[in-house]
Specification:
With 86 residues, the protein is mostly helical. The protein has five helices and no strands. The chain has one domain.
């Protein structure tokens, strides 16, 4: 799934659609992942707000999320045939 660059204004629900994003958010101790109230707010909750409220390292978190996104968005190179040409 392609997503534009993740910024402080990116909605949590959009971030969580990215494969692997939940693990990064957990690494940074984002409490919203397990909060029942936050689950209802995900469609409007912005990552910047979460970082501000909980004192999370926003710049580092965004950098890791964007690094993940860039690695997922890159097309994988074609595999070379393992058969030796004669």
């Amino acid at each position: 799934m392609f997503m534009p660059k993740i910024t402080s204004q990116t909605i949590m629900a959009d971030i969580l659609r990215q494969t692997g994003a939940e693990a990064i958010l957990a690494k940074f101790h984002v409490p919203c992942l397990t909060c029942p109230m936050a689950q209802m707010e995900m469609p409007s909750l912005r990552i910047g707000e979460v970082c501000k409220i909980y004192g999370l390292e926003q710049a580092k978190l965004l950098a890791e999320l964007n690094k993940l996104q860039a690695s997922v968005a890159k097309p994988k190179p074609a595999k070379k045939s393992s058969k030796a040409k004669k």
